[in-house]
Sequence to fold (368 residues):
Amino acid sequence: MRADAIANRRRVLAAAREVFAEQGVEASTEEIARRAGVGAGTVFRHFPTKRDLVERALVEHLDELAGQARAAAASDDPVVALRGLVAEMAEHAPTKIAMAGHLLADGGLEGSARAAAERMGAVTAEVLARAQATGRIRRDVGVAEIHFLVRGIAQAQAFLPVGPEVRRRAVEVLLDGLRVAPRP
Amino acid sequence: MRADAIANRRRVLAAAREVFAEQGVEASTEEIARRAGVGAGTVFRHFPTKRDLVERALVEHLDELAGQARAAAASDDPVVALRGLVAEMAEHAPTKIAMAGHLLADGGLEGSARAAAERMGAVTAEVLARAQATGRIRRDVGVAEIHFLVRGIAQAQAFLPVGPEVRRRAVEVLLDGLRVAPRP
DNA sequence: ACCGTAGCGGAGTCGGCGCTCCGTTTCCAG
DNA sequence: CTGGAAACGGAGCGCCGACTCCGCTACGGT
Fold:
């Protein structure tokens, strides 16, 4: 592969992530081409369908998130790690969610996207298990519930942007709900 | 207005709600016309733009929800009423959310849709205030946080359908988080 | 430096959807 | 019953976005 082709591919992917974050997955391919400084043809040569482009962008997003989560998992207090993971996901997930939604609406997650999602799930599972081992986090929730709740928070902001305090308090409520609850 | 026109209008609106619930707001107007057993022209005579159709469907949805919420508010225990409201919203809101999202992406909520949303907010505020008055629900959350969290749960299911137990547990976590929390 | 070819650009094609137009049908007042 | 207005149906228009095609550009091995 020629050097300029590699560079262009990278620029297209970067532009796509930018545009998807700003305008959602509905953004036109031409806008991405413009942002990347290439022609539409070039975009389609590197990513034959829009789905391929979204999929690749999602994989990069997920892997970055998983990386951050692994870093958070290194924290001494597993409960703090869980809090950090949830807060991080809640803040940065909206774009990712939109992309996953687009793929799901178009044949379901497949191949690399599914693999990346599973890597992410594995990290979450590890952090959650360690937090539960301290006895301070309720044991009747699993990765599914965590992802569900976080996906919710992320999604909710994507639709109707909301002040950072509201989001913070919402995350707080979620985290309190995850503690081992006193049954009144 | 002629009798058949009134009947057709109702059939179109009913079909629209059905189709939006099944396929999302992206569904084509023609599908709605087919389902209603009328021509495309008829749909557009009653609802000059797709936006009008979505808006009208959303208002009906919101008012039904508000009605259910008012019924729940009549419960003896205000905390039970809050639980009922949250559970109800979480289960039936996905379609509503999608419609609101579509309107927002196209100029924001306006007129009747905004009014209906405010009616819904008023009911939520009342239920929440009464629950907080018992001293069992934390006072640092407002309607914004409640709607935010519920919107999240609704949204999350719309994207990636999830078993009813997962949703139930998620709602449970949310509700536990809303209690006055012991600070460990 | 040279030239074969990988790669590029962007005008053009195709399909889908919102919306319009008008000849035809249906309702109902007199 | 009947005339005229109200309402209907669905072919057609215009636009937009995904994707293709091909003449041109410029990279890089020799």
